């Protein structure tokens, strides 16, 4: 039995995979990281960068709070700046129905530990002077903020190189097999062996798990975003609405990013996606309704990116059943926010230690399991 | 204006205007969209002021533009002027913004006649107010019959240098200098092709004689290598390329251009196959003999598909319009052949002249490497050559990474001014471009969203808690 | 037909005369105003460059919204705000 090339192979260089690779390498593992393109160019580089509790599922709030703390301290543990700004967050209600949703959700999230409270329209306007005075109420969270998602690739690339991770960008993995003491990772130019393997392919964890005979359906969302040109300050918080279909914030350099999960069109198998005009109009209307002075600005870019979701919209983070040494990490709802912490917990498991907080094993989602 | 048509034509210059007329003449319901306030495009740009209107009547380009506008008025073409196309979906749905708001037009066929954009080789100081593109001079002279500046220098390459200088003289402005990258030998090489168009050759000779009589110096094999001044231009440094000798010329206004490149955002957005072609402005869209692209129902004509100049654009436009009518079933094979024959014959002749002119305007790719480190490449975001090199050292290997690492191309021009130059620095032998994406123009929020009620917004049901 | 009677714009609070049919950019350039705005990053002065709608250097606030001056015809009483022009570091 020969020694494997690596202790750990990570397939997928988004923020989840890159974080696992980084933490594992820092613990002394020999790590190789594959991506079919450049690092963090899919969901991790194209999402809105929002680091919010108000769009996070209640069950994931404890993870997101830990991760938020990590993001704020990114220069310390990542070693590089991803433009993180911590600020207040407001979720708005414009109708009676939205007031009801907002109250329920604020209660559930605050029970899960998020510092969220309901505020009057007048108090909301004090916190965010640019807000539409016609709001009925808002929920305020003191732990909110955003990163500059497009800097993720640059920051992680530097950190991974410094940590000694072997980077294989633009190297699609074509298959995976068991090999002696570990796994054989196949690519066009040959392959490598590794004792353990992490599947971190975002929406592509479904085809990746098929390599190991596991059938885990992953729903593909195609989130559409827009950004304005640089402008004088119009807002200072992260804004959303009760239904969760808006995320809005202005970066220090003046651009306003408009997100919230309006859907574009696309297809995981071909890897292509595009924005739709209807979503662009709807999303922009919602943004202007929240911050009226945005009406005078111009949108300079609109883009789309994939988001992965499991059947129960909870994460797929844990061991691959029946395949010792194989792990999966993905479909972490509000994944950008929680990624570094989820990756920390999974890395602990990979290293054979008990994770700080429970993982989200995928057994529950596989056919023949009675848990659903 | 929103609604369904047989064919949509984007761009109402020589190519698009003729395409619309040809298709309409064959019985198609045609929608013609242009960004400008009136058809004509750049070469046949509509005069806007009373003075410019009077001048246009005496000018060949002005008269041809006037004739096109009259024919379009008389035809049953639905014209949407002052409208910016910002998205085109396959099938086709074209989104455009006008003063009246956002319009969605639909048609099974789409003809792209989007024209060209000027390229300028960046140099330190090219962002100083008072530095303009060379085509900017023609634009403002045609529409307003004025030319900003008192001490002007005209620089770059190609036949436009002489044309702009002569028009400046007509306005009573004597250029301080014409700075031409080409030498006498380059012009001589073009002469046989120009001779095939005797009227053009005669006009060129007349123009040269006038410049000589006015004592306008022509600095050959020379280029502007820097522009001085902070909030206003105060002078330019000109280098004689073979000797490296530099001279300073006091100037408050510089007009400079290094050729044209297709404005092919929509072609690329719709996935039309393209080929690298330096003579055609860097890249051309592949078309068959009838101007059909690789995308079914999509046609391309004029400089937007590959730079040829105005005259070939006219004939390509006619052929594209007729081909759309043929494919729509409005013309049978014989009628199509008969109607397109004259355009094909004249196109072949026009192309000989076009190639010679395009050769003089080929962008000096190799000189990108000479750009000093502090030279701004991306004007919108003030990204300098040294920033690009730092990003490359951090691992940026493609245009999207370069964009993310530096913000190059993230400003309102959407990479139009910097994209090709940055690609040339990143990989001189590569064929790198930004991923084509809508909106292909900055979208005015005000025009996009119009007036609305909150209840009109189709907010889907909330995500799971 | 365009009337040849001068019309007036308001540029940063000051009246500016121009000719009907002109673009906003043309009208300002005719007054010798070359610097329209400052680049948002480095804050260097900028003015119109391409005059055909591509470069966006002439985008200023016209009647309260950002528009390209080179593509916008003048209209009587139009209110223009140059965006921090001359605010170089």
From TrEMBL, chain A:
Gene3D superfamilies xref list: D-Amino Acid Oxidase, subunit A, domain 2 (3.30.9.10), FAD/NAD(P)-binding domain (3.50.50.60)
Keyword entries, A-Z: Oxidoreductase
Stored Pfam families: DAO
One Gene Ontology term of the molecular function aspect: oxidoreductase activity
GO terms under cellular component: cytoplasm
Sequence ranges assigned to domain FAD dependent oxidoreductase in this UniProt record: 7-348
Keyword field contains Membrane: no
Source organism, top-level taxon: Bacteria
PANTHER family tied to this protein: FAD-DEPENDENT OXIDOREDUCTASE DOMAIN-CONTAINING PROTEIN 1, SARCOSINE DEHYDROGENASE-RELATED
Protein name, per record: FAD-dependent oxidoreductase
From TrEMBL, chain B:
InterPro entries listed in its UniProt record: BFD-like_2Fe2S-bd_dom, BFD-like_2Fe2S-bd_dom_sf, FAD/NAD-bd_sf, FAD/NAD-binding_dom, Metab_Enz_Cyan_OpOx_G3PDH, Opine_Oxase_asu/HCN_bsu
Every FAD/NAD(P)-binding domain range: 5-326
Domain BFD-like [2Fe-2S]-binding: 376-426
Pfam families assigned: Fer2_BFD, Pyr_redox_2
Signal peptide region: none
Recorded GO MF terms: oxidoreductase activity
Keyword Ion transport recorded: no
Keywords: Oxidoreductase
Keyword Repressor: no
Protein name stated in the entry: FAD/NAD(P)-binding oxidoreductase
Classification of source organism: Bacteria, Pseudomonadati, Pseudomonadota, Alphaproteobacteria, Rhodobacterales
TrEMBL record, chain C:
An annotated Gene Ontology molecular function: oxidoreductase activity
Matches recorded under SUPFAM superfamilies: 2Fe-2S ferredoxin-like
UniProt-listed InterPro entries: 2Fe-2S-bd_N, 2Fe-2S_ferredoxin-like_sf, 2Fe-2S_ferredoxin-type
Keywords associated with the record: Oxidoreductase
One Pfam family this sequence matches: Fer2_4
Protein name: (2Fe-2S)-binding protein
């Amino acid at each position: 039995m020969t020694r494997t090339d690596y202790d750990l192979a990570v397939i997928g260089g988004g923020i989840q995979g890159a974080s696992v690779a980084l933490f594992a390498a820092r613990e002394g593992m020999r790590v190789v990281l594959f991506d079919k393109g450049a690092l963090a160019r899919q969901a991790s580089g194209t999402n809105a960068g929002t680091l919010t509790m108000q769009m996070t599922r209640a069950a994931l709030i404890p993870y997101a709070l830990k991760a938020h703390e990590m993001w704020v301290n990114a220069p310390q543990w990542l070693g590089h700046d991803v433009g993180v700004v911590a600020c207040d967050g407001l979720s708005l209600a414009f109708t009676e129905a939205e007031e009801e949703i907002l109250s329920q959700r604020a209660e559930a999230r605050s029970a899960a530990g998020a510092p969220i409270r309901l505020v009057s329209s007048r108090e909301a306007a004090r916190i965010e002077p640019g807000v539409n005075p016609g709001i009925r109420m808002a929920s305020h969270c003191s732990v909110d903020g955003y990163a500059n998602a497009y800097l993720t690739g640059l920051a992680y690339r530097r950190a991974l190189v410094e940590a000694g991770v072997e980077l294989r960008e633009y190297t699609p993995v074509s298959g995976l097999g068991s090999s002696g003491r570990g796994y054989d990772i196949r690519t066009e130019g040959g392959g490598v062996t590794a004792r353990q393997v992490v599947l971190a392919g975002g929406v592509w964890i479904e085809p990746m798990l098929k390599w190991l005979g596991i059938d885990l359906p992953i729903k593909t969302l195609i989130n559409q975003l827009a950004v304005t040109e640089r402008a004088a300050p119009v807002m200072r918080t992260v804004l959303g609405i009760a239904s969760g279909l808006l995320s809005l914030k202005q970066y220090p350099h003046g651009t306003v990013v408009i997100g919230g999960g309006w859907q574009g069109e696309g297809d995981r198998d071909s890897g292509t996606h595009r924005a739709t005009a209807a979503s662009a109009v709807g999303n922009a209307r919602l943004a202007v309704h929240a911050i009226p002075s945005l009406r005078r600005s111009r949108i300079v870019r609109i883009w789309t990116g994939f988001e992965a979701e499991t059947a129960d919209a909870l994460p797929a983070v844990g061991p691959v059943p029946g395949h010792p040494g194989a792990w999966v990490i993905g479909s972490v709802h509000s994944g950008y926010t929680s990624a570094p912490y989820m990756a920390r917990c999974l890395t602990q498991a990979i290293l054979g230690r008990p994770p700080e907080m429970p993982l989200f094993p995928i057994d529950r989602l596989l056919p023949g399991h009675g848990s659903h | 204006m929103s609604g369904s048509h047989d064919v949509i034509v984007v761009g109402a210059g020589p190519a698009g205007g003729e395409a619309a007329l040809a298709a309409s003449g064959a019985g198609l319901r045609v929608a013609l969209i242009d960004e400008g306030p009136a058809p004509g495009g750049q070469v046949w740009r509509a005069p806007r002021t009373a003075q410019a209107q009077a001048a246009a009547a005496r000018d060949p380009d002005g008269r041809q533009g006037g004739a096109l506008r009259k024919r379009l008025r008389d035809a049953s073409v639905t014209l949407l002027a002052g409208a910016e196309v910002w998205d085109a979906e396959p099938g086709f749905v074209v989104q455009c913004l006008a003063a009246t708001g956002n319009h969605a037009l639909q048609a099974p066929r789409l003809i792209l006649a989007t024209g060209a954009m000027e390229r300028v080789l960046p140099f330190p100081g090219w962002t100083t107010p008072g530095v303009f593109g060379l085509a900017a001079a023609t634009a403002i002279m045609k529409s307003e019959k004025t030319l900003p500046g008192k001490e002007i220098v005209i620089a770059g390459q190609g036949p436009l240098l002489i044309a702009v200088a002569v028009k400046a003289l007509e306005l009573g402005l004597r250029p301080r200098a014409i700075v031409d990258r080409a030498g006498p030998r380059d012009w001589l090489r073009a002469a046989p092709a120009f001779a095939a168009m005797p009227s053009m050759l005669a006009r060129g000779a007349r123009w040269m004689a006038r410049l000589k009589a006015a004592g306008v110096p022509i600095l050959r094999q020379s280029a502007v290598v820097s522009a001085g001044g902070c909030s206003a231009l105060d002078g330019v440094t000109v280098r004689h390329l073979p000797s490296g000798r530099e001279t300073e010329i006091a100037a408050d206004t510089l007009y400079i251009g290094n050729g044209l490149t297709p404005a092919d955002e929509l072609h690329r957005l719709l996935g039309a196959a393209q080929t690298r072609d330096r003579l055609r402005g860097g890249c051309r869209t592949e078309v068959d003999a009838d101007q059909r692209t690789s995308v079914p129902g999509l046609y391309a004509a004029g400089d937007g598909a590959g730079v040829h100049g105005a005259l070939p654009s006219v004939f390509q436009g006619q052929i594209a319009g007729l081909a759309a009518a043929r494919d729509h079933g409005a013309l049978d094979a014989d009628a199509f052949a008969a109607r397109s024959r004259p355009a094909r014959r004249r196109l072949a002749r026009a192309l000989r002249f076009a190639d010679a002119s395009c050769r003089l305007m080929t962008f000096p790719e190799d000189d990108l490497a000479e750009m000093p480190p502090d030279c701004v490449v991306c004007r919108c975001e003030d990204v300098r050559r040294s920033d690009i090199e730092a990003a490359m050292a951090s691992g940026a290997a493609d245009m999207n990474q370069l964009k993310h690492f530096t913000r190059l191309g993230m400003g309102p021009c959407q990479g139009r001014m910097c994209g090709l130059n940055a690609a040339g620095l990143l990989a001189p032998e590569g064929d790198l471009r930004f991923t084509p994406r809508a909106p292909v123009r900055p979208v005015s929020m005000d025009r996009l969203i119009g007036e609305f009620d909150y209840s009109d917004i189709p907010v889907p049901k909330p995500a799971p808690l | 037909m365009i009337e040849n009677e001068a019309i007036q714009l308001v540029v940063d609070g000051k009246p500016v005369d121009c000719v009907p049919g002109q673009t906003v950019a043309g009208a300002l350039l005719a007054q010798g105003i070359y610097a329209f705005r400052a680049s948002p990053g480095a804050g260097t002065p900028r003015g119109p460059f391409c005059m055909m709608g591509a470069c966006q250097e002439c985008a200023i606030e016209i009647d309260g919204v950002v528009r390209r001056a080179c593509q916008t015809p003048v209209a009587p009483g139009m209110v223009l705000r140059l965006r921090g022009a001359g605010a170089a570091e």
